[in-house]
Amino acid sequence: MSKAAKLLEKMKSNPQDDWTPDNVKVLCAAFSLTMRQRGTSHAVITNTYGAHLTVPMHKPIKALYIKRLIKLIEETL
């Protein structure tokens, strides 16, 4: 199991944990999601089907956004 897959499983089991923007970047790179952040405090994450998610990139990332990111990844797979 890859590092990203393990991270995804940890996020699924505990979305309330202190997840950082770096964790989100790792998942985006591993699951072919496009992440765009142009000098703002928010990032727009897009999957291959055009679905998108806007995530405020403050530490820690709230569980609501982690759950939505997991859903976006599962739609891509």
Account of the 3D structure:
This protein is of the alpha+beta class and 77 residues long. The protein has one domain (3-76). 45% of the residues lie in helices and 17% in strands. The protein is built from three helices and three strands, in the order ααβββα. It has helices spanning 3-13, 21-30, 63-76, and strands at residues 34-36, 42-46, 52-56. A three-stranded antiparallel beta sheet has the order 1-2-3, with helices on one face. A hairpin with a 5-residue loop joins strand 1 and strand 2. Helix 1 (3-13) packs across helix 2 (21-30). The longest helix is centred in the C-terminal third of the chain and has 14 residues, at 63-76. The two termini are 16 Å apart.
Summed up, what is this model?
By secondary structure, this protein is of the alpha+beta class. The chain is 45% helix and 17% strand. It has 3 helices and 3 strands; from the N terminus they run ααβββα.
SSE arrangement:
Layout: H1 3-13, H2 21-30, E1 34-36, E2 42-46, E3 52-56, H3 63-76
